[in-house]
Amino acid sequence: MATEANDPQGNHAQALSLAARTNNIKAYIVMPEISALPKIAATRDYGAEIIFSGSTSVEREAVTSKVIADTGARLVPPYDHPDIVLGQGTLGLELQDQVLELQGATGKGLDAIVAPCGGGGMLSGVALSAEGTGIRVFGSEPEFSGADDGMRGYYSGQRVEKVSSLTIADGLRTPVGEIPWGIIYERKLVSGMYNVTEDEIKAALRLVYERMKLVVEPSSAVPLAVALYNEDFRSMVEKEAGDEGWDLGIVFSGGNVDLSSLGKLFL
Amino acid sequence: MATEANDPQGNHAQALSLAARTNNIKAYIVMPEISALPKIAATRDYGAEIIFSGSTSVEREAVTSKVIADTGARLVPPYDHPDIVLGQGTLGLELQDQVLELQGATGKGLDAIVAPCGGGGMLSGVALSAEGTGIRVFGSEPEFSGADDGMRGYYSGQRVEKVSSLTIADGLRTPVGEIPWGIIYERKLVSGMYNVTEDEIKAALRLVYERMKLVVEPSSAVPLAVALYNEDFRSMVEKEAGDEGWDLGIVFSGGNVDLSSLGKLFL
């Protein structure tokens, strides 16, 4: 098993590593040499063999091809594949079930879900999980230096294929993949896309740390930032939800934080 | 309601503030001016009126007396009071219940619990919660510059009344109070006390952030550090627990972290 990562959060690498060990399968993970140490350490701790590459996609793909040729491993891409979309979408099913359980007998479930959008695998999976339920699914992205490619593509009707952003939400720097795009845009299973500023991400992140006591990475705080601070989102909800309001599900995904640099975000 | 805080974590201030608001009671919290901003903000957000004092106990007590005289409020001390001990001890009951629930029908419950020891209110409460159950309760403290007053007192037979430590586990810098001491030492409801170094606390803290994804303050990581790194504790468990080992409960208490200084611990 090998992955040519376009997986800036490292969630995919860690999940693959653990899943492979659990099933007694050998995993090879190709990672850029410049990857953050905690991601390397966690991926290795979960049992995978890590093979380093240069940081460009060309270099990564070359190393990955060699690993596959040498070992017979099968490529497991991080988001642009139907199986990955469906697997990530199971979080949407779990979220819906857990909310119904919390609400008890009189519960009507969620009205909407906001999920982060990087490569779009998870967002499109969550959208599929809500298909036919009446639950609306929205995507959320950082605005900074063009990381809101999904939103720009969604409203212009043309998928944006290249992103080069240094947003602090480093898990969401990737462009939306072709398979997710088909679900998000062409099938319109995502009802809207919203973006937030770096300061809004930091404010939401601080709230999650200080009040919810959860370790999340900046990318994880983007959906909450949309719900709290995006005025377009607020207007839309006020219009659509009426006086009753909505029960809104917020997806937090990814806690790969480099502790020594975390503090710098809050200086 | 007023508290003259010897409450370096700010847990007591925040809990009182929230409890008072929930019960529609006015709360006045006396805090040193030099308190960390997140503690002040959280305490205020939960609804209390904050009154600042100087940082010495004499200054705090003077302001507290004036608040009580002016308002008729009742003092709620942070640990050295039977009601507080019993209230904090309810976490021991919850922990025992939750473990039994997790273990299912064949479960035998916990064998032991390790709790942090600052003023000793929570440790003595947890010890009371386990009285007569066969569950052993252990205290844990930072070793640095004498913060292990509880351990030194426990093994010398004499309560240590003054502590002046700058351990990173700032919630555990207080000496053990008289009421907790009676439970911990005189009634011997605590079976042993252990200490850990600053580096051991940091290593446990890093593990909690990186793998458990929980925001805790350094004080919270002290019991886990004892379980992972204290050789005396390890020897004792190996001797007492035999081949079967123990199911050990670890208490995490307090997540009042100043995010801008957190990163400095991990440089």
UniProtKB/TrEMBL annotation, chains A, B:
<feature type="domain" description="Tryptophan synthase beta chain-like PALP">
    <location>
        <begin position="9"/>
        <end position="228"/>
    </location>
</feature>
<dbReference type="GO" id="GO:0008721">
    <property type="term" value="F:D-serine ammonia-lyase activity"/>
</dbReference>
<dbReference type="InterPro" id="IPR036052">
    <property type="entry name" value="TrpB-like_PALP_sf"/>
</dbReference>
<dbReference type="InterPro" id="IPR001926">
    <property type="entry name" value="TrpB-like_PALP"/>
</dbReference>
<keyword id="KW-0663">Pyridoxal phosphate</keyword>
<comment type="similarity">
    <text>Belongs to the serine/threonine dehydratase family.</text>
</comment>
<protein>
    <submittedName>
        <fullName>Tryptophan synthase beta subunit-like PLP-dependent enzyme</fullName>
    </submittedName>
</protein>
<dbReference type="GO" id="GO:0030170">
    <property type="term" value="F:pyridoxal phosphate binding"/>
</dbReference>
<dbReference type="GO" id="GO:0003941">
    <property type="term" value="F:L-serine ammonia-lyase activity"/>
</dbReference>
<dbReference type="GO" id="GO:0005524">
    <property type="term" value="F:ATP binding"/>
</dbReference>
<dbReference type="GO" id="GO:0000287">
    <property type="term" value="F:magnesium ion binding"/>
</dbReference>
<dbReference type="GO" id="GO:0018114">
    <property type="term" value="F:threonine racemase activity"/>
</dbReference>
<dbReference type="Pfam" id="PF00291">
    <property type="entry name" value="PALP"/>
</dbReference>
<dbReference type="GO" id="GO:0030378">
    <property type="term" value="F:serine racemase activity"/>
</dbReference>
